[in-house]
Amino acid sequence: MNTVEIGRLGEELAEKFLNSKGVQITARNVRYKKFEIDLISETTEEVIVYEVKLRHTRKLGEPWRAVTRTKQRQIITVADHFQKQRNSIKNVRFDIISIIHNEFETDIEHIQYAFAP
Asked: Which residue range(s) make up the domain with 96?
């Protein structure tokens, strides 16, 4: 699997997981400049941005650890653009969906309020 396929698989697993919790995804792969948000859902009060990280093993650490401060700033930039385009004043929450997926396990961790602007 190449990185695009791994990313797509992670997003599919994350969306199924979120759907099972009653969350409906309203946007996917939102781009601004060269940055991207993986998944977005909304409530009446807030926009929830999900960064999805999938790894096949824990050898390099938990997947969520790959969401560095630099990556967070990129996601925040896209979220700001997304909000401005829609003239939205809703609060934005940033979550991480951290996935370990291989032939032996699929372990999904949803980290709410993972970071803030």
From this structure: 3-115
Reading the chain (117 residues) residue by residue, the pLDDT tens digits are: 777 788 899 999 999 999 999 999 999 999 999 999 999 999 999 999 999 999 998 888 899 999 999 999 999 999 999 999 999 889 999 999 999 998 898 999 999 999 998
Q: Which residue has the tokens 């093993």?
A: 57
CATH of the domain at 62: 3.40.1350.10
